[in-house]
Each structure stands twice: as C-alpha cells, then as structure tokens.
Amino acid sequence: MLAHRPLGNPVPLAYQRLLSLPYTNLLPVEELEPEAGVKLAQAKLGVKNLPPALAELISRKGQGNPLFIEELINSLLSLDTLQIENGECRITGDLDRLELPDTVQKVVLARIDRLPEAEKITLKVAAAIGRTFQRDLLEAVHPWVTASTTLNEHLDRLQAEDFTRQEAKESNLDFLFKHVITQEVAYETMLYSQRRDLHATIGAVLESRYAHNEGEIIDLLAYHYARSNRPDQALKYLRLAGQKALDGYANEAAIAYFSDALAVAGELELVKVQYDLLAGREQAYSRLGNRMAQVEDLTRMKQLALAEGNLTQQLETGNRRLLLAANLGDYYEAIRIAQKTLALAQQHGHQVWAARTLVNLGIAEWRQGRYDRARAAFQQALDIDGAAADDQLKATSLNYLGLIHTQMSDYEQARQDYQQALELYRAAGDRGGEAGCANNLGLLEASLGRYEQAQRYYAQALSTSQTIGDRLREGISLNTLGQVQTLLGDYRLAQENLERSLNLRNTIGDRRGAAFCLHDLGHLYLARDQADEAVRHFHAACDLRKELGETGNYVASLAAKGQASLAAGDIVLAYQCLREALDSLQNGSGSGEYPPQAIWWIYAQLCRARGDDAEAHQALRQAYTLITAKADLIHHPELRRSYLENVRVNATILAEMTQVNSEL
C-alpha cells in the first residue's frame, strides 16, 4: 500500500508506471463527513458523546482532515480547555475566545511552542534524525542532554503529548513521529546553520558506528551529509548511494542521488567526478527511456571528455551516443558515430573498445535488417584479441547472433547462442540481459509455432523488466506478449498489452518499437474482423518504418496493409500495396523480421479475389518454396515438424498447396 498527498503536475514517471501495473487500484481519500469527524474526536478522547459546542467546532474547523481533528483535540487538551471525567468530556474554557490556527501545520507549531524549551530541543534533534529515530542515536547526537534519565523524561513527555510513539524493534528502542507533518514542522523550526551542524554530527556518529558495514546505511549517510556543512562527505555518500540504487535498478532514486552529487561536484569543481556521475545518471535515464535527458547528459559527457583529453571517456561516450541514436531510429547518425568511434579506437590501439563499438554497430545494422553486415560485425568483435575476456561484450554478441540465426532458421544454433548469453548475463548479475534473452527465447519458440512456450518466456521477460525498471525492455515484452496472445485468440489481453506497450514506447521515444506495436495492433484488428482499423494501424506502421529507413520491416507492414485493405473490400489499394511490397522483396529488400512467405500468401489471396487463379497459384507456389527451403535448413526432426505444422501461416500455405495439387 502506498499513501501519499495529492501530486502536482507533471505526475512523476515512476508513479505513472505504477498505475499502469496490473491489479493496481487507486483509492482517492475524500474528506471525512462531519459526523465521521465527530466520531473520530470521540474515539480520540475515549468518550461516547461530545458537548455540542465542541462537536460544532470539530465539524467547522476540522475540515474533514483526520490529522487536523486529532491535533485540534491535542491543542485543546494542552490548553486545559477540555477535561475528561468518568468517560465524559467537559469544556472548561471558552471555545469562542480561543484563537485556534487554521492549518494543521500551524496547530502543530503552536503545540510545539508550548513545550518547555529543553523538550522542544529534544523534539527538534529527533526531527533531524528522521521520521523514525533510535533512542541511543538521539542521546549520542543531542547537543545538551547528557543524563539518560533526563532524556527518558523528555521522551515520555513527547509521547504523552502525542508527538511521538515508542516501538519495540528487536533489541533497539525505536521511536516514531506520529505523523510526518509533525516531524516536518519541528524540523523547520531550526535555523539553517543548526540543521547543517546537526546533520554533520549525525553523519559522523553513524559512520563511526557502522565503520565495518557502511553499505547497510549508505542512504542514511547520503541523506545526512547532503544536508550538512561537509560537502566532501556529501559527495562521497551521494555517489555511493547513486551507484547502489543503479545496481539495484532503483532508477528514479539513482537519478536523484546522482543529480544531488553533481550539484556538489560542480561547487567543488571536480571535473573527473562530474563525468562519472553523469555516466551513472545517463544509464538510469536510458533504462527509463528519458531520451531528452540522455541527450543532455551525453552532450555534457562528451564536452568533459574532450576538455580533459580523456580517450577512454571519448570512446565510452561515442558508444553510448551510438546506442541512443539506434534506439531513436536514427540509423544514419548511429553508423556515422560508430565509424568515427571505431576509427578512434583502432588508431590508438584500444582493442576492447574497438570490439565494443563493432558490437553496437552490429546492433544498428541488425535493426535495419542488414543481417549479413550485423553478423560480420559481431564475429569481427569476438575475433579481436581480448574481446573474449569481456563477458558483457561476448554475451551481447551471442544474444544478437541468436536473433540472426533465428532469422536464418538455424534454430539449434540460435538456442545455443541464447543459452550461452544467458549464462554470461547471470554470472555478471545483468538482469536486463537476462530479460532480453528470455524474450528472444520466446521469439525462437514463436518462430516454431510453439506459442504457449513463447508466452511463458515473454511473461518472464516482462516480470524481470518491470522489477528492474527497464522501460525499453518492458515495452518489448508487452509487445511480444500481445503478439502471441493475438495468435492464441486472447484478444482482450492482447489489446491491453499492445496498447500499454505503444503508450510506453511513445513516452520514451522508442519510435522503432512503436512501429512494431502499430503493426501488431493491425493484426489484432484483422483477427477481430475490424478491417478499417487494421488498415489505419498498418498505414501508420508503414509511415514510421519508411521514415526510419527500415526497408524490410516497411515491406512487411505494406503487405499487411494490403491484406487489411482486401478484407475491407478495397481491392485496388490492396493490389497497389502488394505489388510495391513484392517489387521491393524481389529487389533484395527482404521482409525484415517477418517471414517472406506470408507476403506471397497474402498476394495469392488477392489474386484469387481478382479472379486471377494462375497468378494466385504461382504466388502460392513461391510461398511454398520459401517454406520448404527454410525447413530443409532445420536438421532436428521435431523442430522441423513444428515449423511446418505449428506456425499458422506455414500450415495454412501447406494445406492450400496440398489442395491445389489434388485438384490438378
């Protein structure tokens, strides 16, 4: 359960993502009705009835705010205006003459001001520690109280006044501010210089106590030193907390820590540290898909690397910019950056960086459907001296080689590639890599028509992606889940997942991913006999893929648009789409990540609709030839049978070819 005050605009991305998760329910908490407010006051005082004047005051002044009502009661008790005797409440003062504050913060502040000075200071010191505080830590950092008995008296009084409450937690005596507003008000009553000194003291005590296991309280140390007069310690622990959050995929927290650390590093003019902090923050932005922020951080990283003449940083920044360009679908820019970065690495003999650049170049080539170029780049990277020792590089290469081998119908080799990559990712603790491999194993199963197995892999990949906050991979897994659910006939879930994926990908600027969603939504609408909607979605996918320069995938969407047009009764548009798609296919453009036999099969349906049975038979024969040629590459009998019998389009083509042959 997450309880929070009303959020401003814009709503944080992390909160938007939380609301999009399955089974998340939003329950707005409304103001209490007057009668409920009076009952709350009765419960607070332990009485069955309130005097009419007090009930009217609670209804009018309390504004339906439970905390405000409780604090009003506390304030009236501390002023000796109320008295409880024999289970009944009696007014002992003149309510009409009381000048009660009109906000809960002012009520709390007024109650704090009525405390004795020594107890007031104890409350403020506790507020600096946090919403929860341990008695022994409070005693260690308190600037005036030295006697344990005195501190105990203060704590007893603060509990009696309903500011704090005591909690038994294992062997330590813990206390808790009853409400965060109470802590905030007490904290704000201190001078800025007092707060800074106190936070520095708290940080030093915590450092001393946890000298051998600082990792347990890195976040606490970062919190206190960031608010202290010790910028050196603030930078140290903010940086460590940012890295800890990044390693744990707490991306929003990592961004906050790195941003605070950057502000301190800027004041201290530490250039090298600024680069490292920007690199950490850029990685968190990448996971969340915040492309504009990525561009800004990469621009600053490049400037710092050039100003310092740091070659390693220049190569690292070049590769990050390359991947960002590829994620944005700007392949011309990606390849330009890759070539420039590769030349720089080779010129200075940085073999491992040359290999990393080749891998990222291979990814950009693969996304454009240039599989031969991509495969050559991955293989060249693995052949470079020292590259084999870089497990991350090797895992990424194997993962993408698996995708290429899947396209080539070498499914056994693809599975070996994925399994090797998965082992390397797990050994390195790279959960993002694990999610990618799981999704690709799902693609492998779907290519063989084993849709239930594919769905399990996709669900596994989605769960991991959501756990680590990787929005790019989350979008991919939602898309592939929707795709296979369409094939399995679960149209409601398919639409839900595809639309969630499309919204997410539009949010993070993943235009290539958005095109896949639009294409798959087109197939969903076709399956639901909503041909006009299908045409609209395939048309949008075509436009986006053409703009991105993804020729092969564009051809596939164009053919699908033709299929939807045929279903909608527009034979002219269907013919135009199919002829353009086939011309591109025959000129070597390929069909991207989609099976080319599907395009010929669609064309065969169109020819039948136009009454051209001879052309339809020829198109069907071409589709059949493509299937059998691919099947001949599959040496494992069970995989070959699954490819021929379970893949829907393949089974349909084979059945139609059998029927045509029987009629001849």
What layout of secondary structure does this protein have?
Layout: H1 13-20, H2 34-45, H3 52-61, H4 66-78, E1 82-85, E2 88-91, H5 104-113, H6 117-129, E3 132-134, H7 135-141, H8 148-160, E4 164-169, E5 172-177, H9 180-188, H10 192-209, H11 218-226, H12 231-247, H13 251-268, H14 271-288, H15 291-308, H16 311-327, H17 331-347, H18 351-367, H19 371-383, H20 391-407, H21 411-428, H22 431-447, H23 451-468, H24 471-487, H25 491-508, H26 511-527, H27 531-548, H28 551-567, H29 571-586, H30 596-609, H31 613-631, H32 637-645, H33 648-663
Antiparallel strand pairs: 1-2, 3-5, 4-5
Helix pairs in contact: 2-3, 2-4, 4-5, 5-9, 6-8, 6-9, 10-11, 11-12, 12-13, 12-14, 13-14, 14-15, 15-16, 16-17, 16-18, 17-18, 18-19, 18-20, 19-20, 20-21, 20-22, 21-22, 22-23, 22-24, 23-24, 24-25, 24-26, 25-26, 26-27, 26-28, 27-28, 28-29, 28-30, 29-30, 30-31, 31-33
How would you describe the overall organization of this protein?
The protein has helices spanning 13-20, 34-45, 52-61, 66-78, 104-113, 117-129, 135-141, 148-160, 180-188, 192-209, 218-226, 231-247, 251-268, 271-288, 291-308, 311-327, 331-347, 351-367, 371-383, 391-407, 411-428, 431-447, 451-468, 471-487, 491-508, 511-527, 531-548, 551-567, 571-586, 596-609, 613-631, 637-645, 648-663, and strands at 82-85, 88-91, 132-134, 164-169, 172-177. The chain is mainly α. It has a 3-stranded antiparallel β-sheet. Strands 1-2 form a two-stranded antiparallel ribbon. Helix 21 packs antiparallel against helix 22. It is elongated. The model has no long low-confidence stretch (mean pLDDT 89).
